[in-house]
Design goal:
The complex is a heterodimer of chains A (149) and B (135). With 149 residues, chain A is an alpha+beta fold. Chain A contains two helices and six strands; from the N terminus they run αβββαβββ. In chain A, β4 (108-110) and β5 (113-127) form a beta hairpin. Chain B is elongated, with a radius of gyration of 17 Å. Classes of the chains: A alpha+beta (149), B alpha+beta (135).
């Protein structure tokens, strides 16, 4: 039996964001997304010492139990958080709307598993601890099934 | 900058189950189940809670509402703001569970409250269903 699909699913989400076309623009017509578009996990993004400008997605690591899923039930629903960070609340919303078009109920190819589809919902916009950035916190609810051997 | 004054997860299944209860025995069993499930979910949240100085986990509260039929688990700003952390000897000036749970621009959130509730949800509903069985 494969390990938890959590890792491959994170990879699939990151890939969908990296490869997404027509990224959102701010009110001045300038791109909101920076490079790289995606950071991972609970650690600081690479180069955080240089304080990357907001305009990226931070993929949260799910809280896993021994069973390997956010909700503790292997092979069933999992909940993942995607943090949409921008300089303004409106731009954070634009990031969310863009990623929603990419992954909300859209089947994603996940290595070793049947395609995964999830439902995206949001909280926010919420301010950062030190100001200067806003996030929309997206929750991605998914089902994953083990691929046939 | 505005801060939320609470960071909670709520379970409302108890009140819903109460509406289905018929006998006094069922009602009593439901109340016991509510208490047990609230306590069990709190224990999971405590297991999942990140610990540094221990200040935050010591302020994780389980509160019963709706005449003891519902409950919530989480944090309240008044337990943090202006309180001295005895480990660091510093006054806490921010309701920082907001950022632990919701994340900052440099660190993804660790929403262990939602995780705890989600981990327990099926068992909570099963316990309430069992309580409503008039054995």
């Amino acid at each position: 039996m494969p390990d938890s699909p959590t890792g491959p699913l994170w990879d699939a989400l990151g890939k969908a964001i990296d490869q997404g076309v027509n990224p959102p623009l701010d009110v001045d017509g300038e791109p909101i997304l920076r490079t790289p578009r995606v950071y991972r996990g609970r650690t600081e993004p690479d180069g955080a010492g240089e304080l990357p400008s907001p305009g990226y997605f931070l993929l949260g690591m799910p809280v896993e139990t021994e069973q390997g899923w956010y909700n503790g039930e292997a092979g069933q629903d999992g909940l993942f958080r995607i943090h949409c960070w921008a300089s303004t609340p409106d731009d954070a919303q634009r990031l969310y709307q863009w990623v929603k078009a990419l992954i909300h109920r859209v089947p994603l190819a996940v290595a070793g598993y049947e395609p995964v589809s999830g439902i995206l919902s949001k909280s926010g916009p919420l301010p950062d601890a030190t100001g200067g950035a806003w996030q929309v916190q997206a929750s991605y609810d998914t089902e994953a099934k083990e691929a046939a051997a | 900058m505005q801060f939320r004054v609470t960071m909670l997860v709520r379970n409302l299944d108890g009140l819903k189950a109460r509406r289905r209860s018929k006998t006094a025995r069922q009602k009593a069993a439901l109340r016991q189940a509510v208490e047990e499930q609230g306590a069990a979910t709190l224990a999971v949240a405590e297991d999942l809670c990140p610990i540094d100085t221990g200040f935050m986990i010591e302020r994780l509260r389980l509160t019963f509402t709706r005449n003891g039929l519902n409950w919530n688990i989480g944090f309240r700003a008044e337990d943090f703001l202006g309180v001295v952390n005895p480990v660091t000897d510093r006054v806490v000036t921010a309701f920082y569970p907001v950022f632990v749970l919701g994340g900052t621009r440099h660190m993804a959130g660790n929403d262990f409250l939602t995780a705890a509730l989600r981990l327990r949800s099926a068992r909570i509903r099963a316990a309430y269903r069992k309580a409503l069985t008039d054995a």
